[in-house]
Design brief:
By secondary structure, the chain is α/β, with parallel strands linked by helices. Helices cover 44% and strands 21% of the residues. α5 links the parallel β2 and β3. α7 runs antiparallel to α8. The radius of gyration is 17 Å and the shape is globular.
């Protein structure tokens, strides 16, 4: 399970603290590097998440592991009156706040520094909750999912966008080579934190996906669980609800 994989192997900090440190370090060039790493396809995936959420006509949306706020900003295109982006990295949130200000959306989007496994919200607070490329960074996946279920309204929608591993030839072999060699190399060239992109690659390779993650969602109380592979299976969009 990915909880045993941490960015800094010799660090005595918890995975949670290491993740915060890692994203603080790479926050300044994260957006540009993310576009390079995904060849820009991640923008298309996020728009599919937007489409799923929009169908529910939400009034309140929570974007967990919001990072620099890409998905939170996109959620402004829904019917939502209030959007909260939550993250444990102050550095990523600071970049996100600047983007929100530049988009004149400060009255609609609020960035909150908090732990996804102990969120400062009341039960049944949000019509929609999203997580894009962040769920594999949870230190305790089950705890994080139970907390998400707690703050999601009954009949609300929970949508996860996360990396996955292609299972068909030749995509399986090609993706393996990409994540093992090219992704860390790109990170080394463009980022001052080589360990960060080694971690992102390693954690993506072992995190449960497809029916395995569906079963974890069901185990933690979610219903109407569905997984939709994207782009030959290099990512998957999961949707679920609450009784």
């Amino acid at each position: 399970m990915s909880k045993n994989i941490t960015p800094y192997k010799s660090s005595t900090l918890s995975k949670k603290d290491q993740i915060a440190q890692m994203f603080d370090t790479i926050s300044g060039n994260y957006d540009g590097l993310n576009r390079v790493i995904s060849f820009g396809i991640d923008v298309k995936w996020r728009k599919k998440v937007l489409a799923l959420v929009s169908k529910k006509n939400p009034k309140t949306v929570l974007d967990i592991a919001t990072g620099t706020g890409d998905l939170a900003l996109l959620m402004a295109e829904t019917s939502a009156e209030k959007i909260i982006g939550l993250d444990i990295s102050a550095g990523m949130l600071e970049v996100g706040r600047k983007k929100i200000t530049n988009a004149n959306l400060s009255n609609k989007i609020e960035m909150v520094l908090a732990d996804s496994e102990a969120m400062p919200f009341e039960d049944n607070s949000f019509d929609a909750i999203t997580v894009a490329f962040g769920i594999r960074n949870f230190e305790h996946l089950d705890l994080g999912l139970k907390e998400i279920l707690r703050v999601l309204k009954p009949n609300g929608i929970f949508v996860v966008l996360e990396t996955s591993n292609p299972t068909k030839t030749p995509y399986k072999q090609g993706y393996s080579l990409y994540t093992k060699y090219l992704l860390p190399l790109i990170g080394k060239i463009f980022s001052k934190d080589k360990a960060a992109y080694n971690y992102l690659s390693e954690s993506a390779s072992v995190f449960p996906f497809g029916e395995a993650l569906n079963n974890i969602l069901r185990k933690n109380g979610f219903i109407e669980v569905l997984a939709e592979p994207q782009t030959f299976g290099v990512a998957t969009i999961y949707s679920a609800s609450k009784k």
